[in-house]
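Protocol step 6 of 9: fold each sequence in the batch and record its structure tokens directly after the sequence line. For illustration, a two-sequence batch is reproduced in full.

Sequence one:
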Amino acid sequence: MPIEEEYFRQLSEYKFAVDLQSKIVDARRAGVLDGVRLVAKKMLKRNKPIDEIIKDTGLTREEIEGLNIEIEVTPSGSAARGMR
């Protein structure tokens, strides 16, 4: 195999590996964030103060308020808070 072909083959393999590693890191971050959001939802359901949830999870007030909206309204439109 000519040197140029080998170079481009190895470069292609390297780029593939870097891209794959980046996707793995992104997926791990997303999984961690999903876990943090789940904890925040549980804290909201137990009526913990938003300031406490911010401190414990690192989420912003806006993110927590968005979760609060998800908890309060189910797809059928009925209130879900306190029912679980």
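Sequence two, same batch, same settings:
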Amino acid sequence: MWNFIVVAGRIVIAVAAIAAVFVSILQTQGVLPKNDLLTASVTFVSLIVIALDNLVTLIRRGARDKRVKRELEISNALMALLLNVGKQNSLRFEQLGACVYVAKKPIWTRTTELVRISRFRPSGYPQQSGVTWRPKKGVVGQAWGDRKTTYKNWHAVAERYSNAEITDESFKKIGLAARSGFTKADFVSIVGKYSEILAEPIWDTRVKKKCIGIVAIDRQYEAGVAVEGEPLNHADTRSFLSTTAALLGTVLSTPTENVS
């Protein structure tokens, strides 16, 4: 919405500037009679145009600074989360990853979905899966739909299906719990990437009981690498994630303009 207002404002400013210059040219060439009042009006309009353009630039710069500050705060929170969880559970830093999603309703659809706004993954792997997150889809969608912390150990599923050829028929035979609400395309794109996932709702600090997003931490699947227990399901991991979610709630509840 903000971008639309800015673009519309700049168009109006540009039209006004062109009109002012055009009038000045017509006066100079004698097409329009010279008129002190008209000349003063053209000058005044030109100054207003410059002032408005500078104001728009300052507003955009301020909004951009706020957005960059928020992105940095989110990245720092995710990095601290991974460092704490890794240290507490003797996991390698590069094994872990974390993402933040916020609820949005795209203009081309009436369905609210979760949109990832931040991703912190030291190793850069696994790559993004391109899943459209909706309630009850995957651990992220489950946490969002149920509005509570959700955990899943997906190691056995990843081990069984990461290198399997999955057809429409074979997908129908996979248990509902293993599918985790994914479509076949989603399942194929994501299976084999993660061993564990833990997701926590992010609550708006200004509006009571309003879930504005999800923060999730995961441990990547590594074929043939065994990890004792379920480190992401430990009480300390849940505590770290809960603290991070609370911090993100404060950060995301502060209005910022979405500018490019």
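Proceed to step 7 once all outputs are recorded. Observation for sequence two: Residues 36-89 form the longest helix (54 residues).
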